[in-house]
Known about the structure:
The protein is α/β, with parallel strands linked by helices. The protein is 47% helix and 17% strand.
Amino acid sequence: MRTIIGIVGRGRLGTALAAALSDAGEHVVGPLGRNDPLPADADVLVLAVPDDAIARLARRVPPGPILAHCSASAPLALLGEREAFTFHPLLAISGMDTEFAGAGCVVGGSSAKAVAAGEQIARALRMNVAEVRDGDRALYHAAASLAANYLVTLEGEAERLMAAVGVDRAMVAPLVRAAVESWAATGAARALTGPIVRGDADTVARQREAIAARAPE
């Protein structure tokens, strides 16, 4: 008998998860709105909602289904004293056409059974799975933010400096892609290039002076 997966949350993640799992042949109920009646026959109920809504929704769920949330850093305790797991895809969710296959997914659970339920969903989506303990989730989320959000912030600053000298972002994008691909293939120590690696202090000093003069903020 197939597992019945209920999904609560009609945002980008809930909508994308429901569509992808349905396409993978899973029995999905949802995505449901936060105030909709909850499916009585669900084996697993995934709360794809903002962090501040998790605990309130969890309290509405009657005993029975394994409960899950999709927050990167929120603790399992928000789901109460029950079988529960966390399920966090390591990718940007764009909508119903999001491609989960090949992306990373981090799970954690209150028991081996709960972890297995999370891994089953990830594998149905053909994702690569890693388990992170509940106490390590904040550090995991910090690392994910560095890898994605902070990178975009740095590229935004590079874009601003390039614009100051008349160079368009599109000209720099291949450099960024090559650097990220090199990091993914070899790690930071081998992928890093430029004047700092060469020990070229004079070039670094000129760069610092130029930024101080043209973009002191």
